Structures are given as structure tokens and as C-alpha cells.
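JOB MANIFEST
job_type = single_chain_structure
chain_count = 1
residues = 112
[input]
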Amino acid sequence: MAEYCRCGRQAVQRTAWTQSNAGRRFVGCVGGRSGCNYFRWIDEPMCLQGRVVIYGLRERVRALEEEMAQNASLREEALEAPRQEHSYWFYVCAMVLFVLVIVLCNSNDEDN
């Protein structure tokens, strides 16, 4: 059954990730603190050891996600570098060819 907050909107279920309530679910106003500030815990408080373990695991997950994001951006940069290097050499070769064409055309004009 739907639960409504004091401002008349349907309350939403969320999970707290603070150190003192890690993993504990609650129902609150969809507007949060900027709404009517309606709040009700769903779960009973957890023992200290459970809170410490859950919070520690959450922090490890967060650190691993950040590391994965950094590795992904490094991989993208590593893949992009050869492309940039190839385009650089393409332009160098094109310029050399352009200069050769101009020199050859000028030498043909002087021969005539």
C-alpha cells in the first residue's frame, strides 16, 4: 500500500549510507529535506559490528568503482594516442607530397 508524506506526494523508499546507518532503509518525502521532511525508518537499527562491516564494504565498492572509472579513461586515452599519432603522420606526408608537387611543377615550368 502506498504511503504519502505530509505534502500529499507519494513517499519513496531509500537506503541510508551514513556510517551510523549504513544499509538501513527508510521512507521519506520525495523532496527530501527541501520537501515536507517526512521520514520513517523501515528497518530496525543494526548492531555496531553490522554497521561497521556494511559501511566498510560500501566504501570499498566506491573506491573500486572510482578505480575502474580511472582505468577506463586511461584505456580510452591509450587507444586515442595512436589515432592522433597516425593523423599527425598523415598530415606530414601530405605536406611533403604537396611541396614535391609544387617543386616538380616549378621545375617543369623552368624547363619550358
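[summary]
The first helix runs from residue 48 to 111.
The chain has two domains: 1-46, 48-112.
exit_status = 0
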